[in-house]
Amino acid sequence: MHKKDLIKAHKRIGPYIHNTPVLSSKLINEIAEASLFFKCENFQKMGAFKMRGATNAIMQLSKEQRTKGVVTHSSGNFAQALSLAAKSLEVKAYIVMPSNAPQVKKDAVKGYGGEIIICEPTLKAREAAALEIEQSKGATFLHPSNDMDVILGQGTAAKELLEEYPDLESIFTPVGGGGLIAGTALAGKYFGNGCKVIGGEPFEVDDAYRSLQSGVIESNRAMNTIADGLKTQLGDVNFPIIQEDVERIIRVTEKEIVESMRLIWERMKIVCEPSSAVALAALLKEKEFFTNKKIGIIISGGNVDLGNLPFFL
Amino acid sequence: MHKKDLIKAHKRIGPYIHNTPVLSSKLINEIAEASLFFKCENFQKMGAFKMRGATNAIMQLSKEQRTKGVVTHSSGNFAQALSLAAKSLEVKAYIVMPSNAPQVKKDAVKGYGGEIIICEPTLKAREAAALEIEQSKGATFLHPSNDMDVILGQGTAAKELLEEYPDLESIFTPVGGGGLIAGTALAGKYFGNGCKVIGGEPFEVDDAYRSLQSGVIESNRAMNTIADGLKTQLGDVNFPIIQEDVERIIRVTEKEIVESMRLIWERMKIVCEPSSAVALAALLKEKEFFTNKKIGIIISGGNVDLGNLPFFL
C-alpha cells in the first residue's frame, strides 16, 4: 500500500463526502492539559466515518459489478453507510440484518434506500444469507472493516485532519473491526510529521489489545460494553497494518467511556456515540504522557438512540 | 436606537465572544421544505447567546462602576453569562440565586467565578437580596433582558448571521424575557434585506403573544413548559421594540418542542436546549408560509441537564 493510493481514494470520494469540521474545547483542553483537535465525523453524511470507506469500496468496483449491486451483513453504521453510498452512486445495496436488530436501525437503512434481508441472529445465518445474495443476484460482498478499499476510505478522515493540523503529535481513534485505526495509521505515516496513531478500546472487548500482545488475531468472549460499534473483530487485512503502524492501544473502563461521552456532550455541545468517546477516554487515562502536546481525536460517529442514554447515574 | 449602536456593540464585544458557526441539515430542509440556516449559539462561550448581552452591558459601565462590580438575580444562563463576562473583564459578579436552584447551576456560576448569594425562592426575596448588594457593595444591577445594552449585545448573533447570509427572508428566535428577539428584530431591520423576525413561544408561557394582542405587557399564569429559559416576562425596554419590529409570534405545544429538539439532536448531531427548539418548532408549525424560502434560526443555547432529557417517550 502506498501513499498515492490514499491520495487517490481521497480524490475519488471527495465529491460524495463532507470534509468535516474540527472542533476544540478550552475546558476539555484544561482537563487534558493538552491541545485537542476533534475531527467531527459525527457530522459526516449518515452520521459516521463509515460513509468514507463504503463510498471508496463501491467506487472501486467495475461497471459490471456496480450493475449487480453490493451486499453486506451489519446492523450498525456500515449498513447505513453502504445504503447511502450505494444510493449516491446509483448502485443497489442488499443489507442482511438479524431479526433482533432495533426497528430504528432498520428504518434508517430503508430511509437510505437499502434493501433489507432479515435472518436469524447468528453469525452463521448472516453469512449464509449474504452468500445467497451474492450467488442469486451476483452482488459483490463488501466487508465493513477488513477490506483494503474500506481501510483507505476511512483513512481519509485523518488525512483531512493532518492537512488542517500538520503537526499533531498523535491521533487517537477507537478500535472496533480495525478499519478506522488501520486507515488512520496509514494516514499518520504518509501525511504526519512523526505522528503516532493510538487506539482506544474498551476492556470489555479488548481483542485488538490482546491480538497485538499475542501476535495473532484474538476473539472477544463477553461483549458487555456500551460502545456497541466496537464489538467487531480485527481481520487479516487490517491486522498487519495495525501491527506495523499503530503505536499502542489503551484500554478503558465503561465508566471512563461514559464520563468522556458526557464531557463531549456537555462541553462541546455535540452528539457522539459511546464508541467515539473511547478515544478521548484513552487519552485522559494516560494524559501524563501527552502534556502540552497537540493531539487529534477522531469522533467516529453520532448515531445514538436518544431514548437510551447512559447519563442517568 | 440606531444602526451604529448595534455596529459599535458588535465591535466592542468581538474579542470576548465567538462568531459562532452556521449549520444546515439536508434532512431538516426536506422536512421544512425550505433552506434553514442555524446560528449555533450553543457553541457560544458558556453555551448561550446571553454571553453577548452580558459582555456588552458590563463594557458600557464606567471605570468606577466596574471597580464595584455587577449584580443580577437569575438561576439560568444569564447568571453564568454575567459571571464569565465579568471574569473576562476583571469585574466582580454577585449572583443572587434562589435556595432551590439546582446544584449544577450553582456549580456552573462558581466555576465561572461568580459569587453566589442564596435567598428564599420568591421574586420579592430575590429583588431584596440584589438591592442589598447594590447598596452595600455599590454594585450595578444588570437585568437579563430588559436593558438596552443587553438587547444590543443579543442582536449581534443575528447581525453575524445576516453578514454570512444577507438574503434571509426571515429569522426565527425563541421568546422569553424578550432580549434576544428584540435585538434580533433590530439586526433584521438594520442589516437584513426585508428580513422579517418571527418569535416562537410555548403555549404554556405565551405572555409575549398575548402582550402583542392586547398592547400591554401580560403575565404568565402557569409555567408548565419544558422550555425553562422562556418562563421570564417581557419588560418596558424590549416590548416597544418587539411591537414595532417583530413580524409575529407563533405558539407551539410541548410535544412540538420535544419533536423539534429531537430533530436537531438526531439530524444535526448537536446538543441544544428545549428553549432553542421552540424556534424550529414554530417554523415547522406554519411551514406552508415559508416554502422554498431561506430562513435563519437562532439556536439560543446548549446548557441542558443530560440526566433529565425528554426523549423517553
What do these coordinates show?
The structure is a homodimer of 313-residue chains. Chain A is α/β, with parallel strands linked by helices and 313 residues long. The model of chain A has no long low-confidence stretch (mean pLDDT 95). In chain A, the strands form two sheets. A six-stranded mixed β-sheet of chain A has the order 1-2-10-7-8-9, with helices on both faces. A four-stranded parallel β-sheet of chain A has the order 5-4-3-6, with helices on both faces. The first copy, chain A, is globular, with a radius of gyration of 18 Å. Chain A is 46% helix and 16% strand. The first copy, chain A, has 13 helices and ten strands. The first copy, chain A, has helices at residues 3-13, 26-32, 50-59, 63-68, 77-88, 103-111, 123-137, 148-164, 179-191, 207-214, 238-245, 254-268, 274-285; strands at 22-23, 35-40, 70-73, 93-98, 115-119, 140-141, 170-174, 196-202, 246-252, 294-299. Chain A folds into two domains: 3-48 and 148-299, Rossmann fold, CATH 3.40.50; 51-141, Rossmann fold (3-Layer(aba) Sandwich). Chains A, B: InterPro entries: TrpB-like_PALP, TrpB-like_PALP_sf. Chains A, B: One of its GO terms (biological process) is D-serine biosynthetic process. Chains A, B: Residues 15-301 form the Tryptophan synthase beta chain-like PALP domain. Chains A, B: Keywords: Lyase, Pyridoxal phosphate. Chains A, B: It holds the Pfam family PALP.
